[in-house]
Amino acid sequence: MRIFLGGHLNFYHPQKGKWLEVDLKGPTPLVDLLNAAGVPLSEVQLVAINGEVVELSNAWVSEGDQVKVFSPVGGG
User: Fold this and answer.
1) % helix / strand / coil in the chain, to the nearest 5?
2) Which one-letter DSSP state was computed for residue 32?
3) Using one digit for the tens of pLDDT, what is the confidence trace for 24-38?
4) Residue 75 belongs to a domain
5) pTM of the prediction?
6) Is 12 in contact with 4 (CB distance < 8 Å)?
7) How many domains is the chain partitioned into structurally?
8) Dihedral (C-alpha) 44, 70, 31, 23: value to the nearest 10 degrees?
């Protein structure tokens, strides 16, 4: 499966890419995948699975899900 890393979250991708490739054995908590990938959970502001915004702490993903995570947006 693929997880889109929006905002500055791609900084934590080994090649600084926007898509993180993950092999799943079955339904998995998203927090486990992000922790394993080195993405700090404190940097994740918004999570969408299959186009629906969900709470990160309750998010489970399966093969075939479309997952997008975004960092907080700031400006000045």
Assistant:
1) 25, 30, 45
2) H
3) 989 999 999 999 999
4) no
5) 0.89
6) no
7) 1
8) -150
Q: Which structural domain range is residue 15 located in?
A: 2-70
List the one residue out of 40, 39, 46, 53 whose CA is nearest residue 69. 46
- Which helix (H) or strand (E) segment is 34 a member of? helix 30-37
- Cβ pair 31, 66 in contact under 8 A: no
b/e sequence 3-22, b meaning 16+ C-beta within 10 Å? bebbbebbebbeeeeeebeb
CATH number at residue 27: 3.10.20.30
Residue 76 lies in a domain: no
Cα–Cα distance measured from residue 31 to residue 60, given in angstroms and rounded to the nearest whole number: 8
Cα-to-chain-centroid distance, residue 56: 9
